[in-house]
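Handout for the seminar on molecular recognition.
Each group receives one record of this type.
Step one: identify the two inputs.
Step two: read the structure output and locate the region that could contact adenosine-5'-triphosphate.
Step three: write two sentences on what you found, then compare them with the reference statements printed after the record.
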Amino acid sequence: MTKKLLEVNGLKQYFPVKDGFLKTNYVKAVDGVTFHIDKGETLGLVGESGCGKTTVGRTLLRLYEPTEGQIIYDGVDITNVNMLPYRKKMQIVFQDPYASLNPRMTVGDIVGEPIDIHNLAKNAKIRKEKIISLLETVGLNSEHANRYPHEFSGGQRQRIGIARALAVDPEFIVCDEPISALDVSIQAQVINMLEDLQKEMGLTYLFIAHDLSIVKHISNRVGVMYLGKIVELAGSDDMYRNPLHPYTQSLLSAIPIPDVRLCREQERIILQGDVPSPLNPPSGCSFRTRCPYAKEICAKEIPLFKEYGNNHIAACHRIGEI
Ligand SMILES: Nc1ncnc2c1ncn2[C@@H]1O[C@H](COP(=O)(O)OP(=O)(O)OP(=O)(O)O)[C@@H](O)[C@H]1O
Ligand code: SF4
Ligand SMILES: [Mg+2]
């Protein structure tokens, strides 16, 4: 039987920013997000730059304190608890493999740091063995331990970041766009490695990406974000075959589909205008300023999530009519 590992309810993250008149305004980076991830599952989270994906990942790990909402991990409400024991269970692989590794530390010490913080090695010998074993797990070797991050390629740096995340033997990892900074030729290697690690270690992933085509392969379910909100959540295949929300439809229409039959039916939907500012999101449906189907009700009422069978949920007033 599947069991929920993580539940996020009504999560909000508002960042205070000073405007020109010394008044405080708020960037509504995450504005009421609800989802769960089952044990051993991968949930993909996609959306354009700035829609709040990283902020969701960091807030649910309590690297940022949530403005509002609840985070439940393995049945325990961790919204306000001391996170130290959970840092061992919940890890993150960062978006930028160049900025996320301390340039003054050796690779051995980068991977060894979480081992030290959580007292996971009884002595220096065990610590060294653990570090070498972690490097080998991610396709590096013992010779790499004494080198510095600048001596490595982007793909190798991301492997070091993954080894660091694995050092505490975690259950859950937020993979924040782990391949978007890498050459296309390296991307598949890193994805395959993450999939193998998941199988071997029984890991659960929140896998963040810009692009639906990347998460389709690796995710069991996918959530689509727009301006701080999840607008649609469904099984991967279901999301691709039958996207319900106009925003998801536009994202998918931009991806070439190899299936000839589907290609003929596919019409490219080009969105007008830019994403509005999260400082001042539109009333009602936040997508309404760019939605080709927007009507009066869309400006007045926030669309609520409804289920359309098969645990496929979407928030739009006009599903069924469009
Ligand atoms: N520490 C912060 N202070 C103020 N605003 C922030 C902070 N972090 C993020 N933001 C803002 O919150 C919004 C969401 O940012 P976030 O980094 O979560 O987006 P993202 O979906 O991960 O984007 P990308 O795909 O480019 O990584 C953006 O408008 C961003 O400018
Ligand atoms: S609620 Fe209205 S504006 Fe929002 S996606 Fe649906 S049709 Fe478009
Ligand atoms: Mg991000």
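Reference statements: The chain has a mean pLDDT of 93. Residues 184-201 form the longest helix (18 residues).
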